[in-house]
Amino acid sequence: MAPHLPMDPFTGVGLGLREPHFALAAEANPGVPFWEIAPENVIGDGERDHDTVCKVLARDPVVTHGLGLSVGGFDPFDGDYLRQLAEFLEFTGSPWHSEHLCFSTVDGSATHDLLPMPLTRASARHTVRRVKELKERLPVPLILENITFYAELGMSELAEPDFLAEVLDGADVGWLLDANNVYVNALIDPRLFNR
């Protein structure tokens, strides 16, 4: 008989830790194998429920999924935020940190949206450089997620899968596949997949 091995805490279906869950999750884990949290919603102490959320994050398995690093953007990364993010990743014990493959800031202003990257080789090379910088500054592996394209930025040289492959291979990072985003992109513009 094989020895009993502990279950991987990231096996199964996790939940996004959102405001409706805070109070219940802080009292006791309601059977959720792991939580997904957006660090931007917790870092700093201005969040009304900061202490409640941190209680859950210190107790339960957590994966982090960022919204605002603007991986493909041109604004420099915020060094203070990256230091806080690194501390947060260590505090939660997240085995990796995922970010959206997009840009979300322009000239220091947040767009509050996940904007698509131009599907060009130059854009892929630029993003690879930025992802490598992030990898050096974060204490856990970085994973990138594909986003939904509601518009195509300029003339594309690459189909979306080829662009993803150039970035992921060039930066040597993993991929968080959002199947819904692939489906939506195929509905919006099937040409994105057939270049």
Q: Report helical residue fraction.
A: 25-40%
Radius of gyration from the CA trace? 18 Å
Do you know the CATH architecture?
Alpha-Beta Barrel
Q: What is the H-and-E element order?
A: EHEHEHEEEHEHEH
Please name the CATH topology.
TIM Barrel
CATH superfamily: Divalent-metal-dependent TIM barrel enzymes
Name of the CATH class: Alpha Beta
Mean pLDDT: 86
Could you give a short description of this structure?
The chain has helices spanning 22-27, 50-59, 79-92, 121-137, 160-171, 179-188; strands at residues 15-16, 35-37, 62-65, 97-100, 103-106, 109-115, 142-145, 174-176. It has 195 residues and is α/β, with parallel strands linked by helices. The chain has a single domain (35-193), classed as Divalent-metal-dependent TIM barrel enzymes (TIM Barrel, Alpha-Beta Barrel), CATH 3.20.20.
Question: Any overview of this molecule?
Answer:
This protein is of the alpha/beta class and 195 residues long. The protein has one domain (35-193): Divalent-metal-dependent TIM barrel enzymes (TIM Barrel, Alpha-Beta Barrel), CATH 3.20.20. Helix content is 35%, strand content 16%. It is built from six helices and eight strands, in the order E-H-E-H-E-H-E-E-E-H-E-H-E-H. The chain has helices spanning 22-27, 50-59, 79-92, 121-137, 160-171, 179-188, and strands at residues 15-16, 35-37, 62-65, 97-100, 103-106, 109-115, 142-145, 174-176. The strands form two sheets. A six-stranded parallel beta sheet has the order 1-2-3-4-7-8, with helices on one face. The protein has a two-stranded antiparallel ribbon with strand order 5-6. The radius of gyration is 18 Å and the shape is globular. The protein starts with 14 loop residues before the first strand and ends in a 7-residue tail after the last helix.
